[in-house]
Amino acid sequence: MAGAHDDAGRPSAPREPIRRPWVWIVTAVLLVGGVPWYWPPGTVHPLVLGVPLWALVSMAFTVALAAHLSHVCRTQWAMADDGADGAGGTGGTGGADRAEGGA
Amino acid sequence: MNDLTFGGAPGIAVLTAYAVIMLGIGFWVSRRRPGVRDGMKSYYLAGGHLGAVVLFFTLYASQYSGNNVVGYAPAAYRSGFTWWQSVTFMTAIIGGYLLFAPRLYTVAKREGFVTPTDWMRYRFGGARSSLLAAVLMLWALANYLLEQLVAMGHGIAGLTGGTVPYQAAVIGFVVVMLAYSWMGGMRAVAFTDVMQGIALLVGVTVLLAGGLWLAGGSLGGVVDHIIATEPDKAAVPPVRDSVNWLSLVVMVGIGAALYPHAVQRIYAADSERTLKRSLSRMAWMPLVTTGVVFAVGLIGIRLFPGLDDTGSEQLVGLIANEVAGINVFFYVMMILLFGGVVAAIVSTADSVLLSLSSIISKDVYARHIAPGADEKKAVAVGKGVGVAAVAVLLVLAWNPPTLLVNIFVLKFELLIQVAPAFILGLYWKRLAEGPVFWGMAAGAALAGGLVLAGVEDVYGVHGGLVGLALNTLVCVVGTLMKRPGAGPVPVPEVRDAERSAD
C-alpha cells in the first residue's frame, strides 16, 4: 500500500480514525451527553430562547457531534495515495489529502 | 396523505416530469458509456469512479428516504422533543462509517470488491459465514425495499388525488425505476439521486417555512403552546426512554452504515479524498433534513392538536394542504415537495434494488450456482431476480400476510449482526471464521427471537443490540479459545494496513 505524504512529499504514517482513542472518547461523550438521562424526568423549565434547556443542551451536543465527525473525516483519515490504490482510483493525491487535513 | 387538496392533475404532471427526467438520465448514461451493463464493477459500482458531488448526493438520497419525511414528522408530533434523537442517530451514522470505511475502502479498491460479502470471503475464506452474511443482508434489503414500495404507494395515492389507481401508478414508477437502473446501473442511480436529493431538501425547507407561517411565524410560540397544552411532550423523558434513546443511536449509527448499498457507495468512490469529503459533508445533513422534519412535527402539535396515532400518520399531508392554501408559490412548492417525497422513496428503492441484485449476481449465482459464468450473464441474472423480488414484494405490500407480519419488522436487528465480521475483522488479526459464523447466527437468532416474541427492548436496550452483544461475545471468546495459528486464512493486506498505521 502506498502511504500518505506530507506537504513536502515525504512519506508519512497513514492516519486512521480507529487508531485515535481521543476520537472515540469525544464521540462517546457527545453521544452520552446528548441523551437527557442526567436531568430529573418530567422537567420542562427553565426555558432558554423559548426552548426547554434540557432540549437545547441535547441539540447543542448533536451539533457538536456533527462538527466533530465532520472534522475527523477531514483531518484524521489519510490512508493512501489516491490513484495508487489499485483498481479505480483516479483522482487526488496523498499530498492534497494532507494539505486538506492540516498537519 | 390520501386527501391532498392539491393532488390530481398537477400532481400527475409533476410525477410524469420526474419520471421523464429519470429515464432521460438513464438513457444518457447508457449512451455515454455503452459498456456499462457488461461488467459487475461497471454496472453495480459505476466502475468505482463516482466523484465528490455525485457521491455526496447518492449517499444523501439513499440514506434519506421518503419515510424520513412522512414517518418522522408524525413521530415528532407524538413524542415531542424526545424525537430529537432522530437527528442524533442520523448523525451517528457517520461515526459508524468511521469505524470501518477508511480501511475497508483501501482493501476494497485493491481487491476489486463489488459486494459487502466480498470482504467476508476475502477475510474469512469459509463459505458458510459469507453465505449467512449474504442472507442477513438480503433479508434486510428486501424488508427495506418492501417499506419503500408501501411508502411509494401512499405518496403516489396522495399526489394523484385518486385519479390514477395507485397500484397502477406504483407499477408505472417501478417500471421507470427498473428502466433507468437497467440502462445505466449505479451511475444512473447516482445521477438521478442528485435530482432526487435536491427535490427533497428544497421540499422540506419550504414545508417548514409554510408551517411556521401558519403557526404565527415563531417556533417560540409553538413551544409555548406545547408547554401549555401538552407539557409531557416538552418534558425530560423517563430514564428508561433515555436508555432507549442511546440504544437507538448506537443501533442505527452502526446498522445504517452497514447497509449493503451504503457499503457499496464506499467501494464506488473514485478516491479516498472524495469519500471522506462526502462523508464530512454528510455529517451536517441530519441537521438540515431530519432536524427540519422534527420542527415540522412540533409545528403540527400547534396546527392539528389532538390527533390519535392513526390520524397523526397523515400529518405531513395535513400540513401540506394548509401550506398549499397560502398562495400560488406555496401551492406549487407543495406539489414539488410531494414529487420530491416520491422521488426520495424511488431513490432509496433503486439503490436497495441494485444492491440486492448485486448480491444475487455475485454472491449467489456466480459463486454457488454457476461458477465461471461470464459477468454479463451474472448481471442479467441479478436483474431478472431483482424484478422477481419486486413482484413478490408488491404482492406482499398489497396483501400483507397477517401471520407473518412480524417477520417483516426485522431489519436493523438482523443487519447489525454482520458488524463484528466487518469491524473486528478489519482490525483483529486473530478473529476466526468459526466464531464469526456462530456469533452471527446466535446474535441473529436472539435479536430476531426477541422481536418475534414481542419484546421490544430489554431495560430500554433494543433487541438488535442485545443480539450484537451476544454475537461479539461469541466472536471474542470463541477466537481466544482457539489455538493461535489454527485460525483462518492469513490476511497480509490487513496486516500491512495495521502495521503502517501503528
UniProtKB/TrEMBL annotation, chain A:
Residues 85-96 have a biased composition (Gly residues). Keywords: Membrane, Transmembrane, Transmembrane helix. Residues 81-103 are annotated as: Disordered. The keyword Transmembrane helix applies. The chain crosses the membrane at residues 21-39, 51-69. This is DUF3311 domain-containing protein. It comes from Nocardiopsis suaedae.
UniProtKB/TrEMBL annotation, chain B:
It catalyses: L-proline(in) + Na(+)(in) = L-proline(out) + Na(+)(out). Its main location: membrane. The keyword Cell membrane applies. It comes from the Bacteria. Keywords: Cell membrane, Ion transport, Membrane, Sodium, Sodium transport, Symport, Transmembrane, Transmembrane helix, Transport. It is found in: Cell membrane. It is a multi-pass membrane protein. The chain crosses the membrane at residues 12-30, 42-61, 81-100, 129-146, 166-186, 198-223, 243-262, 283-304, 324-357, 378-398, 404-428, 435-455, 461-481. Belongs to the sodium:solute symporter (SSF) (TC 2.A.21) family. This is Sodium:solute symporter family protein. It comes from Nocardiopsis suaedae. The lineage of its organism: Bacteria, Bacillati, Actinomycetota, Actinomycetes, Streptosporangiales.
